[in-house]
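Appendix C reproduces, verbatim, an entry submitted by the partner laboratory led by Prof. M.T., so that reviewers can inspect both the input and the predicted structure.
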Amino acid sequence: MIYGYVRPYSRDEEGWLQNQLLEKYGVNTIVQEGDFGEGSDKELHDLLEQLQPKDTVVVVKLSCLAASSELLLEMLTYFDDNNIRFISLFDEIDTLRLGSVYLNAIKRMDEFAFDVRSERTRLGIKRNKK
């Protein structure tokens, strides 16, 4: 089964554009969160409960799936662990092709971002002690 997931965002507040692109891609079912700014992940959690191995989840762009790199990494790890294909149309990501490469790259970028934040924090503390 191919599922499309829609989370409205500022340039597509009602999810209309995402729905059009997912329908054009050929998803079987579209799951959509509420209006832009609502902040709920209820539909995503419901989708995760019904996914089966070899299912596919398609989003228009990564930020429609997760609001942070940590959440994105968590979702991609879940998909990988459960043999679920993930596709992001705008980002040209398809885990069927080089899935572990994408996952490892995102892990490294998340670690990099953490290291940069940590170093900036340490530098700020050091400067404030002077």
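The longest strand covers residues 2-6. Additional entries are available on request from the coordinating office.
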